[in-house]
């Protein structure tokens, strides 16, 4: 049963993660001398090839030729011993994303397994 839950969570998560690409917004005059992308969420510029995961917004922003926004995948379960947690906006992406928490084996789905 546990392997079935892990497989379904992986497939759903892989299929449901959102990535949006678009042109960087125009830089305000105050940042005209900085190379990179203006990030409205932090009111600053990050360099080309860099990314930022602002606290309070559960996504990662990558600055390249196009800006890329990555958000959390969808998490679901039909296991009665498990539930989906809410977003934790006090943490950066991906640690802010909802995850499965199960009564019988809660250490298997904790976000601590995610890379920092």
From TrEMBL:
Domain of life, source organism: Eukaryota
Domain annotation Single: ranges: 37-102
Record SMART domains: SVWC
UniProt signal peptide: 1-17
Keywords: Secreted, Signal
InterPro entries cross-referenced by the UniProt entry: SVWC_dom, Vago-like
Compartments it resides in: Secreted
Record's GO cellular component terms: extracellular region
Main location: secreted
Pfam families tied to this protein: SVWC
Name of the protein this chain belongs to: Single domain-containing protein
Native source organism of the sequence: Spodoptera exigua (Beet armyworm)
């Amino acid at each position: 049963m546990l392997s079935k839950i892990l497989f379904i969570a992986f497939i759903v998560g892989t299929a449901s993660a959102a990535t949006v690409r678009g042109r960087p917004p125009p830089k305000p005059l105050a940042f005209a001398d900085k190379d990179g992308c203006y990030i409205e969420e932090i009111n600053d510029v990050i360099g080309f090839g860099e990314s930022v995961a602002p606290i309070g917004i559960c996504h990662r922003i990558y600055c390249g030729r196009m800006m890329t926004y990555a958000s959390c995948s969808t998490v679901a379960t039909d296991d009665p011993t498990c539930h989906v947690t809410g977003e934790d906006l006090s943490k950066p992406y991906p640690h802010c994303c909802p995850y499965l928490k199960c009564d019988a084996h809660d250490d298997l789905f904790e976000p601590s397994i995610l890379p920092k």
